[in-house]
Amino acid sequence: MEGKNDASQQGGLADALNSWQEGEVWFRKLIPMGQPWGLEEFLEAVPDSAKGSFGARVGESTVLDGQHYQAGEIVVVDSRADFVRLLRGLSKATDLLFPWYDRLVPVSLASAHVRQIDGERYRADLRGRFLKSFLVSVGLVGAGLYFQEFRMVALLMATIYGLFPLVEASMAWFQRVDRLPVEELNRRLVNFEFFRRWLATRRSPMLSVGIVSLVFVFLGQVLAGLGPSIEAAALVKGAVTGDGEWWRLVTTGLMHGSLVHLLFNGMALYNLGRVMVALVNPSLLSFVFLITVMTGSLASLYFGPAQPSVGASGGILGCLGFLLVVTAKFRSLLPGFLRASLIQSTIVVSIFGLLGSAFIDNAAHAGGLIGGVGLGWVLFPWLRLAPVASKSAARILSALSLTVLALGVAKIAWELWAIVSIGK
Fold this sequence. Notes:
By secondary structure, this protein is mainly alpha-helical.
């Protein structure tokens, strides 16, 4: 538990003003200045027209005193009393303005912790979340078992809305944040907000191109027919061992078996990929993905089911395994929520694999995860947190892996074109 709910959900934003003394910014001394995300510039600057005033950015359309305010609009007032009145009248605000600070203050930083978390209330809340998530999980899993045609969709829904919050609540039970001193609670709160904002700025065109490529490959599969396309270029075990088509170890990781499969993998790859890009090096993303797609394919080939296997899951689990090693190395510097969320994802994926073993290639998942952990330990001595520039070795590995992946896309396109041509 690194952050807390909006102040509006904890007694009202107006009450949060108690943390703000005239001319002071309560969280400034807690900003992790020695880290890449420890810069006040990650908070948006106050527009010139609003400087020197109290105010708020409207979170959702609101009518106040007959005046209609649109979401995103910045409203300024002249005094603290008017500010309190404004905050109590707005249904939602996203940022606050103070006349002595030139940055917009997100509502997550609107107030500081002034006392330790109430342990009894904290655990009661966790019990409620656990029970709700458990019931959702059981209900959706049961629906999937009863309605076989919707089994995959039901299990995916159970994973998102049941298993993830269930595991999160279970892990939070043992973290005992109610024992943390106030200063540590505030340090974590500030570190989380600045890390989150920094992470949003660390973008990589390579990741976007990769996900778009997966989408175009899937569209090609639809045109050629999902069944025939899988037979033509995915991990068909007999074609690899019997016909020597080892290129399928790569191409299978660029294809998917359904739209739901693509959407789920695409979101997972984007979320893990952007963290990898931020923490380590954009150049390593394609390399880790390629190698772990192959380790996942090899595991599937020798330990998986006989039927064809398809999907980017091996590479995605590889990125997850790699990040587990990265966050272990930089544990003292990174916000604790990040490693906890990765462990949570690993547990959830394992449970999901067991529940969906009838249509999930768990060998490919395990092979990808182990490959990612192995790569992480091999590269461990050379890993640097958020390097400014890529080393030449990393650029070479990136270029080689991108070339192999591009050739994989080309090979799939060739096989799909052959299917379409025969159909004509």
